[in-house]
Amino acid sequence: MATGLLLLLDDIASIMDDVAALTKVSVEKTAGVLGDDLALNAHQVSGVEANRELPIVWAVAKGSMVNKAILIPGAVLLSSVAPFAITPLMVVGGAYLCFEGFEKIAHKFLHSKQEDEAHHHQHQEILRTEEIDVAAAEKEKINGAVRTDFILSAEIIVLSLGIVENSPFSTRVLVLVGVGILMTIGVYGLVAVIVKLDDLGMYLKTKKNAMAQKTGGFLLLSAPYLMKFLSVAGTVAMFLVGGGILVHKIKFLHHWVEDVSHLASNIPGIGGFAEKVSGMLMETLIGLAAGAIVLLAVTLIRLGFSRRVDSKA
């Protein structure tokens, strides 16, 4: 999705003003959030009836627009009243991205595949019981997805705001609105396609045309792998983007990565390539380290709070 958006923006960048150029940069900088955004939101509509998938995606998309209608004015007001807060917020946002990514990795190591499968099976069995209020369950699923979207939208808006913080007021507004609309249409358009891939595959399998049947079989086979790829790519991107934010906003990290990249640039024959790769690798590793530190801190705080509650009880 991010690639398609960037191609579109590249096509029009040459004939657009500063607003379009800054929007393009904002989309590039926030693209790391999107892979996880796609996977999370596509996962939110799993386990529901096929004929309700698109209505649920549409309901979450509308909730996403409401989220951005709240976040964008708040971000613009912040940039006008307290611009000094933008950098700390970006650092917090970057650290949170790293924390989310490392928490997902930690979950894989702390919970076996059998435990995850048992939990998923239990969830599916609950959904199948007649006692479940389907309308209430669907509303809860939508509300959960909208809450997830609020966090991801806040990250995107803060990252975009950091890019246009020194631009005129009107430019800031137009860029943030443009990014918000592009992200919502792009993410939820792709989510709608992803959750319907299996249905499209089944439809094509019923056709008499051999090519259509093969295409349908391929879609049915590839849909689960696409979801897995989006999840893995999104996690990696969270470390890369989150670590990149920390590197660019924390001076000693910035100088450290610059020194490593400069050494890599001296490698004969592949200096330019090695410089870029080493920079990305360093940002990803810093993202991993930051995620581990934040997760450790959060875990210790939770344990301390839990013990305090237990002692009072």
Provide a count of the helices.
11
Structural class: mainly alpha
Mean pLDDT: 75
**How do the SSEs run, as a string of H and E?**
HHHHHHHHHHH
- Give a short account of the largest sheet: none
Task: Tell me the strand percentage band.
Answer: under 5%
The outline comes out as globular
Task: Jot down its keywords.
313 residues, mainly alpha, 88% helix, 0% strand, globular, disordered N terminus
Question: Could you describe the 3D structure shown?
Answer:
With 313 residues, the protein is mainly alpha-helical. It has a domain at 2-195. It contains eleven helices and no strands. Helix 4 (86-110) crosses helix 6. The longest helix has 42 residues, at 271-312. The radius of gyration is 22 Å and the shape is globular.
Q: What's a quick, concise take on this entry?
A:
The chain has 313 residues and is an all-alpha fold.
Itemize the secondary structure elements and their pairings.
Blueprint: H1 2-13, H2 18-44, H3 50-81, H4 86-110, H5 113-128, H6 134-164, H7 169-195, H8 197-205, H9 210-249, H10 251-265, H11 271-312
Helix pairs in contact: 1-2, 2-6, 2-7, 2-9, 3-6, 3-7, 4-6, 4-9, 4-11, 6-7, 8-9, 9-10, 9-11, 10-11
